[in-house]
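JOB MANIFEST
job_type = single_chain_structure
chain_count = 1
residues = 1235
[input]
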Amino acid sequence: MSTAAFHISSLLEKMTSSDKDFRFMATSDLMSELQKDSIQLDEDSERKVVKMLLRLLEDKNGEVQNLAVKCLGPLVGKVKEYQVETIVDALCANMRSEKEQLRDIAGIGLKTVLSELPPAATGSGLATNVCRKITGQLTNAIAQQEDVAVQLEALDILSDMLSRLGAPLAAFHASLLHCLLPQLSSPRLAVRKRAVGALGHLAAACSTDLFVELADHLLDRLPGPRAPASPATIRTLIQCLGSVGRQAGHRLGAHLDRLVPLVEEFCKLDDDELRESCLQAFEAFLKKCPKEMGPHVSKVTSLCLQYMKHDPNYNYDSDGDEEQMETEDSECSEQESEDEYSDDDDMSWKVRRAAAKCVAALISSRPDLLPEFHGTLAPALIRRFREREENVKADVFGAYIVLLRQTRPPKGWLEAVEEPTQTGSRLHVLRGQVPLVIKALQRQLKDRSIRARQGCFSLLTELAGVLPGSLAEHMPVLVAGIVFSLADRSSSSTIRMDALAFLQGLLGTEPAEAFHSHLPTLLPPVLTCVSDSFYKVAAEALLVLQELVRALWPLDRPRMLDPEPYVGEMSVATLARLRATDLDQEVKERAISCTGHLVGHLGDRLGDDLEPSLLLLLDRLRNEITRLPAVKALTLIAASPLRLDLQPVLAEALPILASFLRKNQRALRLATLAALDALAHSQGLSLPPSAVQAVLAELPALVSESDMHVAQLAVDFLATVTQVQPASLAKVSGPVLSELLRLLRSPLLPAGVLVATEGFLQALVGTRPPCVDYAKLISLLTSPVYNQAADGGSALHKQVYHSLARCVAALAAACPQEAAGTADRLVCDARSPHSSTGVKVLAFLSLAEVGQVAGPGPQRELKAVLLEALGSPSEDVRAAASYALGRVGAGNLPDFLPFLLGQIEAEPRRQYLLLHSLREALGAAPPDSLKPYAEDIWTLLFQRCEGAEEGTRGVVAECLGKLVLVNPPFLLPRFQKQLAAGRPHTRSTVITAVKFLISDQPHPIDPLLKSFIGEFMDSLQDPDLNVRRATLAFFNSAVHNKPSLVRDLLDDILPLLYQETKIRRDLIREVEMGPFKHTVDDGLDVRKAAFECMYSLLESCLGQLDICEFLNHVEDGLKDHYDIRMLTFIMLARLATLCPAPVLQRVDRLIEPLRATCTAKVKAGSVKQEFEKQDELKRSAMRAVAALLTIPEVGKSPIMADFSSQIRSNPELAALFESIQDSASAPSTDSMELS
């Protein structure tokens, strides 16, 4: 016998003792054993333990019974299935016992066992088997109405079981429904309530037929409002509807037209409990079926407005009286009102609370009606801020916060200058409400109730976020409220933290001037909080103090407020915190950061406190725990324009900083490099050379490809040191340059590192005398290319040539006297027949960069060399020459542009390369210098719009886009004429050209483009497929990069977009390929482009979409071609996260295409690519399934439950699903770039 089994058998022996203490201790020890993961019971032990625990459930001692019940939980997972069934049988038998105590214990036991059963999703059948065993016995217990206690317990257990394991009990759903429905008429309230809960859970999991039966039963039982019926019956039925609405509201959509008018009528009966249930039902309907509730919104709104102020037992004084009362002793008056209205029977507050919650559901489910809500609901909510009941007040605040969040401008929104857009007008209305909100909150901010004040702060924080600057004129009220809460020491520290967090937010959104006059009032309580004994308050207060310093004495503007009266006490409070070493880590870090801001912004006024502050920071720099915040504080001080004297700490700080560059902690290395750069900029020559040498010795190791960001900061610092202390660089310039050249040969070199390298190289040759000779640097840069074997192909990546060329140009720009010689040498290299391909490519790319600084001398020869190179056999040389021709031309337009245009006319075979040159010239030249040539270029480009090659037309479109930017008001309208008059290829080229006008940054052309965009979008109705595809690509670019351009036009565009997602049979044709027939769908590209637009709309214009209509087209896409299904699976996963309610409503229809994809088989003998495509499809479909399962109610859908069990029973699908769930915890791969 194993040790564990022996130990357990001895415990079982003690459990038979006549001494209750022995039995209790033995059971407690058994509990400890069972909770160990390592315990393994053999069959005999299992049987004995189960038998003994079931016996102890009937023990005379209540404590032993309770402990035995608790043991059942861990035991379930340790014994075999048939033993669990034995336990369940015994518990069910005890449920019907005569003894009340035994019945209670059995009920608790069943609930414990059920809660410990493995969920069906794990693939274990135990839960299903146990539930099937229990269900029959529970329905019998519920149907026998002899003992209410048994009935209630059975209903409780059944409700619990249906909520966790609804779907596996499908076979019992019908009998359960027929057992539960009669309980709605039970004379006992407790039975009715539990039956209502159980029916709600059943409604979520049952089949559609049973759901319809349940809904019809409830609707048929609901009498007409004038028919005689007991209030209790009506209340129960409405509560049942509310419960079904909350658990399975997405299935009620079809019944709402019959249901809502009935519930509206019952709202008018004089019964507060019934009104509460009606409003709760409406809340559930609005959340789960927003679209179907559309026709009823106005009636629900008026009911909410009516019942939000339903308070028959209380007379709210007029505003005048309120103001009078404020002058009286508010404590006394509040006490009186509480005594007078402590009416326990008053249920009206529940009605008001339900109405406020319903208003919140109304606002969040119908963002399209916001302008209307601002006119009707907002004023009513503001009036209700004076609500006397705390719970209701919290929900009123909550509803107004929902309104504010819905009003917040969407991402990428630009307020149009000419006409106020929809969002602009909403914000304007909201701005008008601000004084009313502040007036309504004035008394609440000084309310004795902490919860009321917290609600005020939350609401005001949200308001400041939506309308920054709108609270400045109301600062006296807000400051008084903040100071009141900061001084409130009678209650918990939470309210002080909330007040500090609100003040911090306010400093970020309101202009600094608004705080100037209030600083004498505000600062003392904040400083008191800085020295508070509770670490969270102190940390929050230090953050506020830091924000105060940053906002009131900014470094980029002259000081508007004299800091003299305040700087002393701020410094004392902060230094006291900085000196203390026994503090919480968060307080230490905030104290260091706050000191950094104080010294950086007001160091010139600190006087004698400056040196102690710096020395304390130096001390914190030596401490491993505080070194990172100390480095950041030092950066702030060094970068300050006050140019403070840091001599007391420099000599010691630099070696410490140098040692940090060797540490593994990346954040520390980055912060240290930033600090060193700031110190080199500000202190320059006063840095001790020996310390600088120590720092520089660490740098070569940091200039490496392993961490490009660190490398960029290291090179930036090197450039700064080169300018301020060139002598220090003598020792390290060699190792640094060799590392830098290795870095330049990386094909993954980011733009930031390249710019930093250019700066460093320019600094090296720019010092007097130069740290490194110009010719040596050029030779170092070009040697990797020149040293390659002359005949060998390019061993370096294309990107490396561009990087090296940029560096050559940077050096030429830094030494203008050398530029002409460099250009001459490059021209010689380019034309020499002995030069390798790599040398020629580098020469042309360098000429492209240098050409603009070299002057007209070598440019005359250049034309011949460049034209000759355009005919080179090497594609790389041709591309480099084309690029060089454009870039050099941009620097000398009068000489080059007419020549280039002439060549385009004369050389049709080289047209593609020459157009690329033109594109570069148009992009690089200043717009004003291009104006004289605009007409010639315009004419030439439109002559080439009808070319046969799509690639050439694409370059023409890009050229046209760049040309329009030369003179937008004149040239953009001419696009319209071309759209109207041109042939199909011209029309698609024009639309593509407009696409190139859209950038993700604000641009002066945006307002003009916005006025024309509607007419360009009309091309979605063009008969030509290519034009429609180009229009969709243009629309997608607009939605992705600058949604504000198209947001207001979506009502007109969306029907046309959805039209393009449909499969058109007339575009599908059969092509004969030898003995085989192959189907070709000419409309596929357009459909794919339309679905890509839909995906982009989800990211940036979700608020403007009718999701139900959107989902109809996603549903069609789930059955389309491979490419489109891949897109729609990703969209479905996104929709499940963004708007679960509408997805839930049609989940049954969405599952079928997913199931079809997951279970599809590839024909035997198919090529490898077919198998790969099918695997990718399955993986994508499974991701969508995993996303759907994150919606809580989806698992209860019978069809989804069936599909889930199918996935678990198929090893291949189960493995795939598991791998997707594992990768879901890693960063998401579902996001797409579709610009």
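[summary]
Residues 773-789+796-854+864-891 form one domain.
The CA atoms of residues 5 and 42 lie 8 Å apart.
exit_status = 0
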